[in-house]
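User: For my dataset I need records formatted as: sequence, then structure tokens, nothing else. Please produce one.
Assistant:
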Amino acid sequence: MELIAIGNGTASRETDKLASELIRTLREEGVEAPQKVTVSEAGASVYSASALAAAELPDYDVTVRGAVSIARRLQDPLAELVKIDPQSIGVGQYQHDVPPAALRRALNDTVEDCVNAVGVNLNSASVQLLAHVAGVGTATAERIVAYRTEHGPFANRQQLLNVPRLGERRPSARRQDSSASVVARSRWMPPRCTRKPTRSRAALLPTRRHATAPTGLPVPWVPRTVATRSPG
């Protein structure tokens, strides 16, 4: 044992005094003594009574789960704090005066910014920590952890492409068929006219007798905007 994590909550001074006496006794006996560190235990009680703590530590009671959470905060604070609702950590005296939806959105954005600024260890990050990485949701994080559990630690980031539904996106056959049909429809050009001009329209067309082509073409001349031949 190298470190002793002491929560700064109830009876923290008494616990610190007990740890100091233990360290002093070990040093007098010539044994290498650990160091004591005071850790914030904000939200530890909320985590210890949560379903997540029961799933991670099913064989321990609530008090031991809280102690484990405090010790983990000393090892990797960010990985442990993301398991707790930010509102339970205590973010100010007037947090309850802010609309709950706006507060939750702002706190979640702050947690996500912190996680992406610090980064994560792919071989030790939990599902809750990976879920806050930009572009990775809870479902993808669960698949990453499942792949890591089955195949061992990742040697490089390229192996992430082997995680199911995380590699290169490949369109399905149905999507390819629909894309081909869209391309085929885009290449099809409708004819200029699908029927012959009506009698009233034909009366307005220039005739052989008085038609004059604007470009000096020989008569008879028919405007290109009207087709007299049905599409073949």
